[in-house]
């Protein structure tokens, strides 16, 4: 379900031109509801809200929806340079640096990615809530997807639940990973002996990780990994359990040859919440991981 026609943002309104199929209907209100729910794929919850608040209007041949109302950021804007990978009126994808959490944990006062996104919105004169769709661990780098309005949030949250948001990572791990290791299907639960750790547990939540490709060197391997599920620390737990902890991941047994876990989100693929177009966002490797890979290759060539 998607909208393939022309659209534009005008203040708090989204303007669309559905065409004569709706304009010529005897009961335009009913036809509009059916079109929004079945063709555009508007979540019924949002449709009822807009209908109740008179946020659905016709102006000539244009259908207008209040999809961009004024909203508080929900978090204090705190400025820091932000690497934007993709942006339009519905979505924002930013490249998270190492050492920064996506959102506050309620205890630390450190700046988070959500603080920085709020400052980015503020500088652009955009008043909308900061809504992250997924997270990355504090020391993992790569793309984080944000929804810039409620419509996008509802559609992208649904896509996450249906496993339609594809996340592909690069991981540099210890040891020579066998080409036979292509799928890890092991449940993950909390570690009763360590509050911040997770572990493979028969009573845990289902967790599936796919290994798409590998470069194998004498003492390390570079893996391209896709998440099917999104459990806390999933890639780190699974690879450590299989005897290949991520380099630098001290929490899960990785050697201290790198100051953090050598894990980076390379690619993010998702369908645009309005148009349905599949977007692929690439995030360049951080320099520290580029340098680590070069050292591993140089060592292997000696």
TrEMBL record:
Keywords: Isomerase. The keyword Nucleotide-binding does not apply. Residues 92-241 form the Pseudouridine synthase RsuA/RluA-like domain. The keyword Repressor does not apply. It comes from the Bacteria. One of its GO terms (biological process) is enzyme-directed rRNA pseudouridine synthesis. Signal peptide: none annotated. Pfam families: PseudoU_synth_2. Its EC number is 5.4.99.-. GO terms for molecular function: catalytic activity, acting on RNA; pseudouridine synthase activity; RNA binding. Belongs to the pseudouridine synthase RluA family. This is Pseudouridine synthase. It comes from Paenibacillus solani.
